[in-house]
Amino acid sequence: MKVRNRSLKRIGLLAALLLVCLCLTACAGGKYSDAEELYAQGDYAAALELYEELGDHQDAPQKANLCRYHLADALLEQQNYEEALPYYRQLAGHRDSDDKAAFCEQKIGMAANADNDFLAALEQSVADRLNATAQGGETVDLKIVVDTELAYLEGFADATFYDQRLSRLAQQYLKGLYEQQEALGETLRCDHDFSWLQGEADRLEALSCLYEEYGFMEEDVQFIANCVKQAEDAQTRLAAHKAIEDDIDEQTSSDAFEPEYEYLYDDWGRFSFRLKNNTEYTYSTVFDFRFLTEDNNLFYSDSVAIENIRPGESYTVSVDIDLKDCDTEGLNWEWENYYTSFQW
Prior knowledge:
Layout: H1 2-40, H2 44-54, H3 60-77, H4 81-90, H5 97-112, H6 115-136, H7 142-153, H8 164-183, H9 189-214, H10 221-228, H11 231-252, E1 260-263, E2 268-276, E3 282-292, E4 298-309, E5 314-322, E6 332-343
Antiparallel strand pairs: 1-2, 2-5, 3-4, 3-6
Helix pairs in contact: 1-2, 2-3, 3-4, 4-5, 6-7, 7-8, 8-9, 9-11
């Protein structure tokens, strides 16, 4: 009889335990269904709470991660990077969470340093320049244009940036502005043109990279047309200018370069020399000549324009001068040239 009582007690205990397990399973099943319904409705915060309470029940851990991912994406869309970041970090390795965590870190770092302030100042300075150029046309005061941009931006020359790529682009843009400022102070047209073109190439390349990599002013049609689309042409014009300058300099510096004086009539003479276009570019150029007496006084000046010099073409640069009352033995000359067009 005692043995039978023990057996009955064990059976009762097992039955009770089984009942508890069935109740717990039923409760978990109900909670899981509630979580699934909330998830389907897009209430990810409430669904996440239930999935976390379910622990390892079925695929609750995976569904919890999906909730965290959706919550993080919603915060990211709202540009709430500080609250989105912990979710993405918790989801390391899940989908593209690592990339989005890095993006949030970048945005937080840029806000804490000079990055965002620079981009805002640059946008204002570029917009002002575009408007001034559009309104002023060829009569726009370029000194005011450049000085205005520098007033916006030169304070960032020594600023601390979180994004080092952005820092380099900022310095490149400032370099372009300083080159254009220097160009405006040049007395010779050739020096002005080269410095201005160098600055333009640096500026537009930086703006093009900012557009491509940071979405800078990506909805501004005027900016895209006048800056982004012109960046490659500016680089090509600069390359053409350098190549032609080097070609002419090499020829005029060689021992074979021999300018000629030719007497014409009634005390008139002709000064001339030959050059060849050894580059791949077609260009038009203007030579400005100054003839000086032995004591360095200006005796005569003139300009010669030569149009559409094609690759491989030789050409003569000549200027006729009145030599009356001039000692040709002591006559000195100097010249500079600048370019009015390039074709490639």
